[in-house]
């Protein structure tokens, strides 16, 4: 049995190609894809050719074997209907899987999730919710602390929402009016980056922000964020900059104010949490959040599967207020 899949074949070039599906053996399901989400982080880095080609695609996801050496298949947010079931799933049931963009795929039944009752387009945003949750767990602000979230894409907005739920005072920053408006729809206070230093200084008595979460993907934004921090403040970096250089002002101000830089990443949990948290607990909470949050606000663009090349080009240019794009399989 064959299927069609998006292949990354060169920087800023994708094609649909035929792939041979494995036999649907015991314990596996065959899924007909309805939607698949395009991430604006790692996936666009892969699209632009800004990832080390020898790096594994993702060692934690069975569907993402291989490396970023062209050609490769990528994507990790597929939603569809089961057409050949295995327990506990039934034919026609709607499921989610971490799988590359492909119109049909075979998956281990233990690795797919029932999403019946969820808007299937919105369900493609699940990886963004899980990532935002991990950022929130890593940032772990205290009640009343001031946090600036730099970059209000889908992940940045969700990070801001979840941090606010912890009792932090959250300010979102992005130059795009459409992204500011989307953040406000989630109840996030969002302003232009040029206003942030003055607002933070005024509202903290010039102490500075306790935390900055850098989620823009722009190395220059990280450099500019360090000046927002209070003494012993921390910049939590959720952006992956790929192969782009990241020049930082690590001079006297950084040194004398004891600032900290910390990375956060969703594929693993930090050792400090593993006594109480594992991936299953995090996934259960992330799916509950996915059902609570107004995710359709972020689902700004949809493209037919056959228009995958146009979808990536549009996402790369952030055209028309694009926050999250998805492929539709008619």
Which short descriptors sum up this protein?
330 residues, 6-stranded parallel beta sheet, 10 helices, 27% helix
Describe this structure in words.
- Helix 4 links the parallel strand 9 (146-150) and strand 10.
- Strands 3, 5, 6, 7, 8, 15 and 16 form a 7-stranded mixed beta sheet that branches.
- This protein has helices at 42-48, 120-123, 126-139, 154-165, 177-185, 196-203, 219-225, 252-256, 279-292, 308-317, and strands at 2-10, 13-20, 28-38, 72-73, 78-84, 94-97, 104-108, 112-114, 146-150, 169-173, 190-191, 209-214, 229-237, 260-263, 301-304, 325-328.
- It has 330 residues and is an alpha/beta fold.
- Helix 3 crosses helix 4 (154-165).
Summarize the topology.
Layout: E1 2-10, E2 13-20, E3 28-38, H1 42-48, E4 72-73, E5 78-84, E6 94-97, E7 104-108, E8 112-114, H2 120-123, H3 126-139, E9 146-150, H4 154-165, E10 169-173, H5 177-185, E11 190-191, H6 196-203, E12 209-214, H7 219-225, E13 229-237, H8 252-256, E14 260-263, H9 279-292, E15 301-304, H10 308-317, E16 325-328
Parallel strand pairs: 9-10, 9-12, 10-11, 12-13, 13-14, 15-16
Antiparallel strand pairs: 1-2, 1-4, 3-5, 3-7, 3-16, 5-6, 6-8
Helix pairs in contact: 3-4, 3-9
The gist of it:
With 330 residues, the chain is α/β, with parallel strands linked by helices. 27% of the residues lie in helices and 27% in strands.
